[in-house]
Specification:
Layout: E1 9-12, H1 16-28, E2 34-37, H2 40-45, E3 53-57, H3 65-75, E4 80-85, H4 90-98, E5 103-106, H5 112-125
Parallel strand pairs: 1-2, 1-3, 3-4, 4-5
Length: 133
């Protein structure tokens, strides 16, 4: 059976506080293979690790999250990307979703419960890289 908790998860964010918080929530939800990338370039360099889920910041120091998303989708089209941002901007959310993001999280409103619900949906639907039979 498909177990998302054993799959590689990337956190791509240049904010160490947010990255640490998100990693802690993922660990509390049972995830063990978590890779933190502090930049878009770092994420792209590590795509050979074949993450199933990537939590991607929209505003990165080195490049825009949409640029990183395009790289991810061109190399690993089945990888699930969830945008994370501090900006409440509907245009950004719509653009991210149209560009291939599975979901859009506001950093200030993200809870372990909300995160767990998204990951449960990914597991049940098999969206995160593998299909459920």
């Amino acid at each position: 059976m498909y177990d998302l908790k054993k799959k590689t998860v990337f956190i791509v964010d240049d904010d160490p506080f947010w990255s640490s918080m998100l990693e802690q929530m993922l660990v509390e939800l049972g995830h063990t293979d978590i890779v933190a990338c502090g930049s878009g370039a770092d994420c792209i360099r590590n795509l050979h690790l074949r993450p199933s889920v990537i939590f991607l910041d929209y505003h990165l120091d080195d490049m825009n999250g949409l640029e990183v998303l395009k790289h991810i989708k061109s190399l690993l089209p089945d990888t699930t990307v969830i945008f994370c941002t501090a900006q409440e901007d509907i245009h950004t959310a719509v653009t991210a979703m149209r560009s291939g993001s599975f979901d859009y999280l506001l950093k200030s409103k993200t809870t372990r419960t909300e995160l767990g619900a998204i990951l449960k949906t990914l597991k049940e639907t098999g969206v995160a890289g593998e299909k459920v039979y």
